[in-house]
Amino acid sequence: MDFGISTDEQLLADTARRFGDEWLRNQERDHEKARGYGDGVAAAYRELGLTHLGASEDLGGLELPLPIRARIWETIAAADPGASLALGPWEVAASGLATFDEGRAVLRDGRPGALVVVDDLAVKGGAVTGDIAWIPTANAEWLLLVGADEVLWVDDPPVTPLEDRTCGLQACHGAEVHLAATPCKPVGDRVLVESCLVEAWALSAAAMLGAARDAHAYAWQYAQERVAFGKPIAHHQALAFLLVDCATELDGAGLLLEAACTTGELVEVANAYVKVGETAAAVAERAVQVLGGHGYLYDHPVEKRMRDIRALATLFGGLHRAATLAAERVLDTPGFLELRGQS
Amino acid sequence: MIDLSLDAGFMNVLRILRFFGRKHIRPADLEADRSGDPLPVDHKLFTDFNAMNLSFGLRNVGKKPSGPQDGPGRTARASIIAAEELAFWGQGATMALPGAGLGGPPVGLLGTDDQKRRFLEAPFKDKSKPAWGAYATTEPGCGSDVARIRTTAQKDGDHWILNGEKMFITNGARASWVVIFATVDPSAGRAGQRAFVVEKGTPGFSVGRIEKKMGLTASETAGLVLEDVRVPDANLLGRKEGSKGKAGFKVAMATFDLTRPMVAMMAIGIGRSAWERARDVAAEAFGARPKSAHEILLLDRLAAAKRELDTARLLCWRAAWKMDHRQTNTVEASMAKVYSPKAALSAISTAVDVVGLAGVRNEQFVEKCFRDIKVFDIFEGTGQVQNIVLARRLLDYPSTG
After folding, report:
1. Which of residues 250-279 of B touch A (CB under 8 A)?
2. N or C: which end of chain B has fewer CB within 10 A?
3. Using CA atoms in the order B80, B86, B89, B94, what is the torsion angle rounded to 10 degrees?
4. Distance CA B150, CA B166 (A)
5. Angle (CA) B373 B379 B380, round 5°
6. Residue A16 CB neighbours (<10 A)
7. What separation, in Å, do the N-terminal and C-terminal C-alpha atoms of chain B show?
8. Is B227 near chain A, with CB under 8 Å?
9. Helix H segments across B189-329?
10. Which residues does chain B have within 8 Å of residue A245's beta carbon, measured at their own beta carbons?
């Protein structure tokens, strides 16, 4: 049993934190307005290797294990919840993309695209038909469609950048996709489906966790400075308990995610994704509540955290899909001793 | 990176406890629950337990671990893992097991060598005769606010005269000795508190009522009455550092850093036992066929309950790991304590729903878990007290708030 953090891990997290503070945190509203991050941010992100955390070394990647990648995503999301998704969208599918030629080219060259978990696309004769209402990548050059039993590759999909704004992740500038007998290619079976879900859910959960932690920290600070009825609002028991409850929930959810990423098992990651998603949504909403009317304004980041988390939780099949998977497999859950993977 | 693997030493502890729990704890726990009375002092469980000579749990409070990679001997990790496993099989019977109990930490941390010999060694030497210690702060008029205790201690030569009443004392009636917290000056609050070891048979020291409780029936919960009880100076704790016993309150607080994660893990153990029963019932009832909407909903709730129990366990393990690495863990201990009982209660309530109407019948184990679990959000600091601890530590929340 070990809950420590190595020096290397700390170094990577510090690097990510510095990037977030320098390039993202105070420019969030500008990026949201511009529906993009700009070339400077993208170049700095690439320069630090953040675009290639998961890819193997022969593809120019750092080949970091999932728990460390998740920690980096969490750290960057604290400064801007959508940045990692926009600046390195292939990261959520790195292990899946690495299993076929076109995917490896994406990883090597850093071509933008999107992993989409789908239920209702019609596949016939090597072509796929159906609509995808939102992907968080306006300039997607590829899609990885993850179904129940197979994974499909779509090169150069018919993508239409959105004109309307999305609830959150606006700097990603979303798009809609109308697939009409669009050529596709099967690239993997159920095994690949599962590895895609593990990676996408783990990193998405990490982004939600980082966003929620940041909203909570902001509300925490505000509550100690804002005075009402003669004392800081943090010293009114109703708010003090609300804030410490959130701190406990966040710590618990974070530990569950870290543990799940370490196992790399789909059912564990699904459970952690659901737990983190539910916790993050609740914590961000409470952060807005702590700031009262100010929380509702663009003057503070908490309302954006709440919107971004709401949007994040719909990607990759959404929390409900992960909860369904966890429920389907719950009867196969082993006992405590076996859970630890020891005999 | 987090590493949740347990080495061979921990696994061996678990195996031993699993064997002992299945063979001895569970039957005794159910027997007491069905009879409605605590396990009698001559119950075979107690001599069987003594024969095993296990060393972990509260016995290790105050003892330094030999190192972070310590085996399953003197570590907080071993204590809490054992706490979960024993609670899984029956927490009432586990609390009734012989030993110094919660009285051990204050004597171990504050006692002189002579006191340790008299209270922690001598009574427990004869393994064929189970013996107990106990710990008493709570009174009818004060629970969470331990600074308000009204049991008094007046100096009289080389003795102290104790008067007052104690309540909710685990193993209080059968204990050879009880650590009694009393005040030399009620207006001084915590500063006026002292801890005394009061021995069974001391004139004026009597047992009040054996409580009838919602759950944890196997465990004896007693009221104690002190009427002009003369306690020698030699039984005052905290004398060794020349503090004249003033460290009493501080010790009570420091003990919580281990006992809170332990109690939290007990709650998880009970929650897990009901959860596993429900999982097995569900698997047998509708495991291999297509599920109805109702059944899918129950499975979703089972999965959610598992998430919460796993989260709670990680909070507890982190608190224990920090303690073993000599890092301050008061915040983590309170987080574990506030989170786990609620997670366990929710899991057990789900288990009752999964079992259905039969779930409320005593023969279906899960209803017993439901009765056992509630007190875990009350003793060792209520959930609300944990939140106050957290708010004070993290938000500079005022003590008088």
Report:
1. 272, 276, 279
2. C
3. -130
4. 10
5. 125
6. 24
7. 39
8. no
9. 248-286, 293-324
10. 338, 387
Task: Quote the pLDDT of residue B68.
Answer: 45
B309 near A CB under 8 A: no
Q: What is the pLDDT of residues B302-350, one digit of tens each?
A: 999 999 999 999 999 999 999 989 899 999 999 999 999 999 999 999 9
Distance between start and end Cα atoms, chain A: 16
Q: How far apart, in whole angstroms, are the C-alpha atoms of residue A79 and residue A25?
A: 5
**Residue B61 confidence (pLDDT) above 90:** no
Q: Are B103 and B137 a contacting pair, CB within 8 Å?
A: no
Interface of B with A in 75-134 (CB under 8 A): 77, 84-85, 88
* pLDDT (tens digit per residue) in B154-212: 999 999 999 999 999 999 999 999 999 999 998 888 888 899 999 999 999 999 999 99
Two tokens at A65? 């294990």
pLDDT at B282 over 80: yes
Structural contact between residues A39 and A95, judged by C-beta atoms closer than 8 angstroms:
no
> DSSP labels for A117-159?
E-SS-EEETTEEEEEEEEES-TT--EEEEE-SS-EEEEES--E
Chain A residues 70-89 within an 8 A CB cutoff of chain B = none
Whether B293 and chain A come into contact, CB under 8 Å, resolves to: no
A221 touches chain B (CB under 8 A): no
| Residues of A whose CB is below 8 A from B338 | 245, 248
pLDDT digits (tens, 9 = 90+) for A87-104: 999 999 999 999 999 999
Please state the pTM of the whole predicted model: 0.92
Tokens coding B97: 């097991």
Task: For residues A271-288, give the mean pLDDT.
Answer: 98
To the nearest whole Å, the CA of A26 is away from the closest chain B CA by 26
**Residue B180 to residue B197: CA distance in whole angstroms:** 6
pLDDT of B241 strictly over 60: no
Active site residues of B: 380
- B81: closest CA of chain A, how far (Å): 11
Instruction: Convert the pLDDT of each residue in A288-319 to its tens digit.
Output: 999 999 999 999 999 999 999 999 999 999 99
Instruction: Name the more confident of B338 and B245.
Output: B338
B198 membership: H or E segment, kind and range: strand B193-199
pLDDT at B62: 47
**Pairwise pLDDT comparison (A23 vs B102), residue with the higher score:** A23
Residue B245 pLDDT > 60, yes or no? no
Please name the residue that has the structure tokens 């678990």.
Answer: B14
Nearest CA in chain A to B399: A235
**In this structure, what token pair is assigned to residue B300?**
């979703």
Which candidate in A7, A10, A71, A330 is best for mutational testing of the B interface (most B CBs within 10 A)?
Answer: A330
Q: B285 — contact with chain A (CB < 8 Å)?
A: no
**Average pLDDT along chain B:** 89
Q: How far is A165 from chain B (nearest CA, A)?
A: 33
What is the spatial distance between Cα B264 and Cα B377, in angstroms, rounded to a whole number? 9
Across chain A, mean pLDDT equals: 94
Q: Which segments of chain A are extended strands (E)?
A: 114-117, 122-124, 127-135, 142-146, 151-155, 159-161, 175-183, 185-188, 227-228, 231-232
Question: In terms of C-beta density within 10 A (0-12 exposed, 13-18 middle, 19 or more buried), how is residue A120 classed?
Answer: exposed
CB contact under 8 A, B3 and A262: yes
The ipTM estimated for the assembled molecules is 0.91
Sign of CA dihedral A176, A179, A184, A186: positive
Closest CB to B299 among A67, A247, A330: A330
B-facing residues of A in 264-303 (CB < 8 A) are 271-272, 274-275
pLDDT tier at A339 (50, 70, 90 boundaries)? very low
